[in-house]
């Protein structure tokens, strides 16, 4: 019996995949901002009014869902301005650079990396620093842990990871389990991962072209 739902991966970088449940959930995360002009009939949507006809006055402080902030953001018309959430500001980046491995990213934001990538859609002088996230510093520890935790309880470790890191950890665990099965004669052969296979297909297509 086939599955009724095939998981769709999130988009890459500043692009979203609107078929991905992870990206749909991420787009609901809120950004602090300010109305640079009056926003007609948006008061109810942003929780600042009771009637559907109410407008948000110019200068009002806002908490805007990412999907709406991207829709309203226009560098020429200045409809809204968006601020960095505190976990992406310099003070927190300093904490990450001191010891990224001890930070509980899931508590701070389950889609920390994906949401941070989306912030690059808005003009901010700190964008270059935001782009240089803690991912590389944490990647080695995550993969080492996934390769050295065979048949162990990893719930405490996984609880501290954001969704992207959790997916990487699961890939590492699957690779370890497949190898252990092969060593015990419980698998006929070791096969290349789907990532490697897809890369090979693209290279062949380039050669044929």
From TrEMBL:
<dbReference type="InterPro" id="IPR038437">
    <property type="entry name" value="GINS_Psf3_sf"/>
</dbReference>
<comment type="function">
    <text>The GINS complex plays an essential role in the initiation of DNA replication.</text>
</comment>
<feature type="domain" description="GINS subunit">
    <location>
        <begin position="89"/>
        <end position="182"/>
    </location>
</feature>
<keyword id="KW-0235">DNA replication</keyword>
<dbReference type="Pfam" id="PF22466">
    <property type="entry name" value="PSF3_N"/>
</dbReference>
<comment type="function">
    <text>Required for correct functioning of the GINS complex, a complex that plays an essential role in the initiation of DNA replication, and progression of DNA replication forks. GINS complex is a core component of CDC45-MCM-GINS (CMG) helicase, the molecular machine that unwinds template DNA during replication, and around which the replisome is built.</text>
</comment>
<feature type="domain" description="DNA replication complex GINS protein PSF3 N-terminal">
    <location>
        <begin position="20"/>
        <end position="72"/>
    </location>
</feature>
<dbReference type="InterPro" id="IPR036224">
    <property type="entry name" value="GINS_bundle-like_dom_sf"/>
</dbReference>
<dbReference type="InterPro" id="IPR055221">
    <property type="entry name" value="PSF3_N"/>
</dbReference>
<comment type="subunit">
    <text>Component of the GINS complex.</text>
</comment>
<keyword id="KW-0539">Nucleus</keyword>
<dbReference type="GO" id="GO:1902975">
    <property type="term" value="P:mitotic DNA replication initiation"/>
</dbReference>
<comment type="similarity">
    <text>Belongs to the GINS3/PSF3 family.</text>
</comment>
<dbReference type="InterPro" id="IPR010492">
    <property type="entry name" value="GINS_Psf3"/>
</dbReference>
<dbReference type="InterPro" id="IPR021151">
    <property type="entry name" value="GINS_A"/>
</dbReference>
<protein>
    <recommendedName>
        <fullName>DNA replication complex GINS protein PSF3</fullName>
    </recommendedName>
</protein>
<dbReference type="GO" id="GO:0000811">
    <property type="term" value="C:GINS complex"/>
</dbReference>
<dbReference type="Pfam" id="PF05916">
    <property type="entry name" value="Sld5"/>
</dbReference>
């Amino acid at each position: 019996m086939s599955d009724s739902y095939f998981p769709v991966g999130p988009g890459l970088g500043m692009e979203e995949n609107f078929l991905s449940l992870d990206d749909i959930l991420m787009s609901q995360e809120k950004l602090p901002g300010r109305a640079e002009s009056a926003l007609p009939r948006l008061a109810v949507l942003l929780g600042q009014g009771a009637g559907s006809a109410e407008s948000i006055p110019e200068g009002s402080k806002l908490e805007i869902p990412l999907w709406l902030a991207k829709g309203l953001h226009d560098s020429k018309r200045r409809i809204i301005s968006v601020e960095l959430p505190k976990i992406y500001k310099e003070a927190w980046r300093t904490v990450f650079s001191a010891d990224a491995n001890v930070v509980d990213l899931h508590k701070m934001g389950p889609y920390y990396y994906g949401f941070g990538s989306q912030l690059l859609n808005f003009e901010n002088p700190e964008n270059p620093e935001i782009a240089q996230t803690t991912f590389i510093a944490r990647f080695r520890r995550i993969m080492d842990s996934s390769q050295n935790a065979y048949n162990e309880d990893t719930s405490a470790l996984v609880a501290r990871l954001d969704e992207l890191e959790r997916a990487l950890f699961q890939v590492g665990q699957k690779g370890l389990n497949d190898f252990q099965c092969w060593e015990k004669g419980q698998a006929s052969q070791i096969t290349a991962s789907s990532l490697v296979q897809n890369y090979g297909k693209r290279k062949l297509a380039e050669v044929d072209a």
